Amino acid sequence: MATTTTSVRGAGPLAGSRAFLARLRDGDEIARLATFLFAASVVLITVLLVYQLWQGSALPRHRFGLSFFRTSVWDPVFDQFGALPFIYGTLVTSAMALLIAVPLGVGAAIFLAELAPLRLSDTLEFFIDLLAAVPSVIYGLLGIFIVVPLMRRVIQPQLKQFLGFLPLFQGPAFGLGFLTAGVVLAIMIIPYIISVSREILLSVPRDQREAALALGATRWESTWKVVVPFARGGILGSVFLALARALGETMAVTMVIGNTPVISASLLSPGDSIASVIASQFKEATGELYTQSLIELGLVLFLLTFILNGLARIMIAVTSKRGTGLGHA
Amino acid sequence: MKRIVGIALVAFGLAGLLAAGSLSITGAGATFPYPMYSKWFDEYHKKNPAVEINYQSIGSGGGIKQVTEGTVDFGATDGPMNDDQLKAFQDKHSCAVLHFPTVLGAVVPTYNIPGVTASLNFTPEALAGIYLGKVTKWNDPLIAGANKGISLPADDIIVVHRAESSGTTYVWTDFLSKVSEEWKTQVGKATAVKWPVGLGGQGNEGVTGTIKNTPDSIGYVELIYAESNKIPYGNVKNAAGVFVKASLGGVTAAAAGAAKAMPDDFRVSITNAPGKDAYPISSFTWLLVPSRISDAAKRDALKDFLSWMLADGQNYAEALSYARLPKEVVAMEKKALAKIQ
Amino acid sequence: MNRRLRWRKFVSAFMLSMTGVCAVVAVSVLFLILGYLVVHGGASVSWSFFTNLPAPVGEAGGGMANAIVGSAKLLMLAMLMGVPVGFLGAIYLAEFSGTTTAFIVRYAADLLNGVPSIVIGIFAYSLAVLPFKHFSTFAGGFALGLMMIPITLRSTEEFLRSVPVSLREGAMALGASKWKTIATVIVPSAYRGILTTILLAFARVAGETAPLLFTALGNRFWSPGWSQPTASLPVAIYNYAISPYEDWHRQAWAAGLVLLGLILVINIVARGVLARGISVSRS
Question: Considering A62, A182, A194, B81, which has the largest number of Cβ atoms within 10 A of its Cβ?
Fold first, then answer.
């Protein structure tokens, strides 16, 4: 039975593996296999990460279910854990950061793409990219020693004096809190908005601008009413990217937000964010429910950034395609 | 290019061998005794250069958790482990975890009120009221009543507490639970509680920093933190009705009763202790050591350190405003060292 | 010129100068940051900062020698773990893979890239700390290496793809097998871009703090070998900044200056490498 297969290639039960081994001797096949293993490991790691987050938060998911997202109580003594204060803190600080960074960032991007001569634009862009490389902990350092005292001694008292009738600016001026965290985050995300928006604006076809100018628009009108709306999707995409970055920021936020799980209408109030509470409490969460609740918060953060990043990429891709695909109206 | 890679690999290998000869022991936990421990481990290293005891102050909750997980060789806490936590350790490691008291310290109410440098008198009712959010202004009668002659501003009190799981919080809330029924039922005592009001600081260090930088604030920290940073701290009324300022004498007096009646596992609370000299917010602080350590070198080094700590180590305590252990406790601990296998 | 037109022209000039203001504000933030660091940190950067170990709490004269060496070890480990995976994976994507596999791998890499660093810390804790029962330099390097993978992968793939088809076909015409072509022709010609990628990925993770909190923990002494906790510059900055001790604050500023200086220098060098590369290949 088996005696004849050794001399006949392509026949018999061992032929398949023999052919594989023969291919293996070929350097290309080894190279293909080796590099495939590394590429596959990237997928494996990502799958493992999501799996760990899911499994690691099983206890609170079963115990609290969806009420985890509606409860604002975070009580390690009585084993009550609710994510609401942290989701609130994350959203409020990110919203504040966007409120400050988007006008500034888009404005700067418009300047760099439309007005500045190419050399100046490239030089400024170089510095903006350097700004994007500054690590979070350095922003935190500056936050604690420069921004917080400034807030506490100068800005917050002024806000209370002139706008104190609004519920937004009530309560003692701690210096730490939502407002300060929002300002620090804004400084951190401006570079992302500027670089991506600048790219998008630069990719808007020239005839769009020229058509507007030919119709009698001023420089500003052509920019604001024609070019920017054309690039609207991509700019929105850059905002989503910046938002995704802001949501996940840990160190700078935890150093200035006040580390208190409260929901307050006042921006002067201390609070906490998802990333910040994980950083400060993970090492010492005693008990499975406590630890796993923090992991569930991590899962929530992961999902939020995942969705935002996806949306951002889609919007930027769509806008770029419009830019390159169109030559005619 | 290849040369660069080659040099890098060699440097890499050498770095791995760096100081491979010394024994490295890792501990983590309470920030309360951190100034004491960092001094001790430094001195011990000078006497025994081959042993490095790396202590990270991450909070008592962290100490309990990491020693239970087994990721550190010993833990440290000012809030003794409760029965559930002891059982969790036992289940995980099939051996018990031992508490070894190291020093005694005091938790003080420290504050930063512009224009007030004197030591204010705080009644337990005032402290509970402030932390419950009921007493909101510095010139509230509950505070002013005990401080006739000191003019207090009508400013809002900014309450500061610990953001993370802390033994200092345990001591503070243990005291408040003993003196205020409302606190006991509403908040309770633990290393991490749901604070009715206030701002969170990271570690004793973070709270001290926040107080220093925030006018009209009040917080609770270990005595040495207030002293070395020169921020005023108040006198607290003890169980005998006397306003006592935290001091080595007051802490030692608080421990006197407990020393005579120390349980075998050394877990005891000395807050609100009887006696007219006793400072009411005092506490032991403990090292958490597993009763079975498989690495013989580490076991012997830890036992040697503990013996040193009970003898020479105690001499360093007073300079850092921690009180020495009572003689009876030291004798009991020396015997308990044998339990570490 | 009627009034309406004058108004529109005024608005145009005004708004456009406002955008200029925005750009100036954005860029001056960088110089402000550098300025503060130089002023506050410059005074504390001393010989003892680089050579001393931390002193006991409250005593002066401590330094960050162990944090500097610790960061170096962590980054070396991160490169050792992250760069090969990213690099070889990119080779697979650029040279060997089909479209579906490529899509899946790229998607996974983008996902990994978007994961907040604190979540990477949780992941590394459960994978590299808990099973081994101690915090370690290895676990810290692992966490940082994970973060280097997606950047290295995507960017290297781009640079490999940008190698002209003519070079590949030339090599194949001379009878070289695929892997020989890759090793001797494609990779060397993309080497500038790949070097830039590695440098930028390095600079990116050099400043990361959150993943190290649960993995490398910290150490007041030198960290022998790879399986002990280690101090690192970013974590040291964090711990010292939130402390109440003036001496520690000064050291935090100094460390911030050193760290940021290192990161900025690497970024500038990396972009310089790339720029020279582009101009070279054009001529």
Answer: A194
| Residues in a beta bridge with B52 | B24
How many folded domains does chain C comprise?
Answer: 1
8 Å CB contact of A136 and C209? yes
pLDDT tens across A217-258, in order?
888 888 888 888 888 888 888 898 889 889 988 999 998 998
**Chain A residue with Cα closest to C150:** A42
- Chains in contact with chain C (at least 3 beta-carbon pairs closer than 8 A): A, B
Domain residues for C195?
63-274
State the smallest CA–CA distance between residue C147 and chain B in angstroms.
Answer: 21
Residue C164 is given by DSSP the state -
pLDDT for the residue A155:
87
Residue A3: pLDDT band by 50, 70, 90 thresholds?
very low
- Rounded to whole angstroms, the Cα distance separating A94 from A244 reads 9
Q: Are B78 and B107 in contact (CB under 8 A)?
A: no
- Per residue in C30-43, pLDDT (tens digit) is 888 889 889 988 88
Q: What count of residues does chain B have?
A: 341
Q: Measure the CA–CA gap between B177 and B75, rounded to whole angstroms.
A: 26
In a domain, C48, yes or no: no
Contact (CB<8Å) B213/A74:
no
Q: A166: part of which helix (H) or strand (E)? A: none
Q: Which of B61, B64, B163 sits opposite A259 (nearest CB)?
A: B163
| Residue C207 within a domain | yes
The separation between the first and the last C-alpha atoms of chain B, rounded to the nearest angstrom, is 53
Question: Is residue B266 within 8 Å of residue B335, measured between CB atoms?
Answer: no
Query: Does a structural domain hold residue C134?
Result: yes
CATH (domain of C232)? 1.10.3720.10
Indicate the pLDDT class of residue C169, thresholds 50, 70 and 90.
confident
Q: Do B199 and A78 touch (CB under 8 A)?
A: no
Question: Is B165 in Cβ contact with A286 (below 8 Å)?
Answer: yes
Provide the edge-to-edge strand list for the sheet that holds B282-290: B51-57, B23-29, B74-77, B282-290, B97-112, B217-222, B158-162, B199-201
Neighbouring CB atoms inside 10 A of B77's CB total 28
Place of tokens 């604006």: A201
Neighbours of B162 (CB within 10 A): 31
Rounded Cα–Cα distance for residues A208 and A113 (Å): 14
Summarize the confidence of residues C132-136 as an average pLDDT. Answer: 89
Q: Which long-range contacts (CB under 8 A, 24 or more apart) does B67-71 make?
A: B67/B28, B67/B29, B67/B97, B67/B288, B67/B290, B68/A286, B68/B92, B68/B97, B69/C130, B69/C133, B70/C133, B71/C129, B71/C130, B71/C133, B71/C134, B71/C135
ipTM value for the complex: 0.86
By CA distance, what is B58's nearest residue in C?
C217
Residue of C nearest to B52 (CA): C221
Residue C12 lies in a domain: no
Closest CA to B240 of B271, B277, B272, B276: B276
Spatial separation of the C-alpha atoms in residues B72 and B88, rounded to whole Å: 16
